[in-house]
Amino acid sequence: MKKKKNSWPHKPNRLLYALAVLVVYPYFKIRYRMKIDRRAMRGQKGPMMVVANHGSNIDFLCACLALYPRRMNIVTSNYFFQNKWLAPILHF
Predict the structure, then answer these.
(1) Res 3: pLDDT
(2) What number of helices (H) and strands (E) belong to the chain?
(3) Nearest one of 40, 64, 68 to 52, comparing CA atoms
(4) Could you tell me which of 15, 17, 35 has the C-alpha nearest to residue 26?
């Protein structure tokens, strides 16, 4: 019997991720004067874990923008998956 390969966690959808970056980055650049310096990311290979201390409600967006074009899976609590508006977006 052939074992079924576990494909979890899924990588975020490349097209949606790029679209989100194209929308969010200009907003952050104008609203918060955000600048991203990716020099430290040059040459980094393999998987990595980013741990943030939640200085704000949007820090995960800042981390996603800083790591782009690498796609990031975000760990969140079950509370957000129970929200009827957010759950479909998070599952997608």
Answers:
(1) 62
(2) 4, 0
(3) 64
(4) 35
Helices (H), 1-58: 14-31
Closest by CA position to 90, among listed 77, 2, 31: 77
Q: How far is residue 28's CA from residue 37's CA, in Å, rounded to a whole number? A: 14
Nearest to 19 by CA among 68, 62, 57: 68
Average pLDDT, the chain: 84
What are 10's two structure tokens?
């899924």
pTM of the model: 0.72
Task: Find the farthest-apart pair of alpha carbons in the chain and give their distance in angstroms, rounded.
Answer: 57
Question: Which two structure tokens, joined as six digits, stand for 92?
Answer: 């997608």
